[in-house]
């Protein structure tokens, strides 16, 4: 089958700092690099590197053709990645000595997608395929509605968190993926605990506490342990997890098997600097032995 990713493509500008800046503080960066990123690109690369066929639906500007080429190099189909007159999306990413980050995003071409392109792209989707979207583009609900009408499984990653965007997606999503902070924000906004949401399946990443999977149909919940590593750069860890999770499901793995594999992929990713460029291949994940932590 195929994973259809409606998502953003960003040029990530990385600045390594001694600590994340406080309001009004000016810091000198010790290092700078540019790489491929954006939640859509990250998830698409992770899914492709995880062994699934992936179609990325989105847009880059005239300054972003290098990103389109790099996505193709990583195995992502870019047939439906438009070349827009708008400038490409980009992100300013500050990373401190502990690997924590602070990110500023400019949407650009990611927020200028045309409905006709969505219609054309998803005309090729087949029943049983997976659709995934995030909050860094426009037309998420339109894409999800088309995907649902064609029999696709709709997966929604509720990030970056926007209350109204999430509200619009809850009744069309089959699987909701979010982190602990986003889960708390959603509960505060809706008054509903995760298990009470109108979504069949919910996966919450809990950082060092692992991952929680909630099946709202049965009322069952299961926790999976985290893979302990020393983080170098946490940017893109959640996207790596989501992409690998969907790749595992696309390859026929159960949730019980796909979640630990995705957690392992995300753990390996955070030991490397970068976003999409740092996402490991399936063979790397399967053969990697996490370091022992005493």
UniProtKB/TrEMBL annotation:
The keyword Cytoplasm applies. InterPro entries: PfkB_dom, Ribo/fructo_kinase, Ribokinase, Ribokinase-like. Residues 3-280 form the Carbohydrate kinase PfkB domain. CDD domains: ribokinase. It catalyses: D-ribose + ATP = D-ribose 5-phosphate + ADP + H(+). Requires a divalent cation, most likely magnesium in vivo, as an electrophilic catalyst to aid phosphoryl group transfer. It is the chelate of the metal and the nucleotide that is the actual substrate. Its cofactor is Mg(2+). Its EC number is 2.7.1.15. ATP binds at residues 179, 205-210, 238-239. The keyword Transferase applies. Pathway: Carbohydrate metabolism; D-ribose degradation; D-ribose 5-phosphate from beta-D-ribopyranose: step 2/2. K(+) binds at residues 233, 235, 269, 272, 274. One of its GO terms (molecular function) is ATP binding. Pfam families: PfkB (PF00294). It is an enzyme of class 2 (transferase). One of its GO terms (biological process) is D-ribose catabolic process. Catalyzes the phosphorylation of ribose at O-5 in a reaction requiring ATP and magnesium. The resulting D-ribose-5-phosphate can then be used either for sythesis of nucleotides, histidine, and tryptophan, or as a component of the pentose phosphate pathway. Belongs to the carbohydrate kinase PfkB family. Ribokinase subfamily. This is Ribokinase. It comes from Pseudooceanicola nanhaiensis.
